[in-house]
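Retry 2 of 3 after timeout on previous attempt. Resubmitting structure tokens to design endpoint.
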């Protein structure tokens, strides 16, 4: 009678989930691509900015709706900001925080109270939002992270 190990070895089945230390292990997803929350990485910032810039592909009846949608989507990767659009045309720049910022004590007992980004990316992160009302009454909204 064959043992279970012999059966597996003879059939050539390696399975979908390989154990620790087995030969032929594949790299994890994180080894080849950084997550979108790693906003300090220039490549990740470029990808996130492409997404943020795509807000301009549509026209909106209320420009604030575009900002609210963008806030909700960026919240999925831990980014948040406060912005209210007023008037028919304008540009605003506001601070962006990640995971609500940082508050508390550092390992050297110094106080921490920042945006959660500036300790990883020099100068932190801001979002620039420009909006304008078109002749047909709809609005275009343009945004980018700087």
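Retry 2 succeeded. Sequence:
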């Amino acid at each position: 009678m064959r043992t279970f190990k012999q059966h597996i070895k003879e059939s050539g089945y390696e399975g979908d989930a390989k154990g620790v230390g087995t030969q032929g292990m594949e790299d994890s997803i994180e080894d080849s691509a950084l997550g979108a929350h790693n906003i300090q990485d220039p490549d990740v910032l470029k990808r996130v900015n492409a997404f943020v810039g795509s807000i301009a592909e549509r026209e909106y009846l209320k420009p604030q709706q575009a900002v609210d949608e963008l806030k909700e989507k960026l919240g999925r990767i831990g980014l948040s900001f406060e912005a209210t659009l007023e008037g028919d045309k304008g540009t605003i720049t506001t601070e962006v925080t990640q995971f609500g910022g940082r508050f508390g004590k550092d390992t050297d007992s110094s106080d921490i109270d920042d945006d959660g980004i500036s300790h990883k990316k020099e100068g932190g992160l801001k979002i620039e939002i420009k909006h304008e009302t078109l002749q047909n009454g709809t609005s275009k909204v343009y945004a980018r992270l700087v």
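Attempt log closed. The chain has four helices and seven strands.
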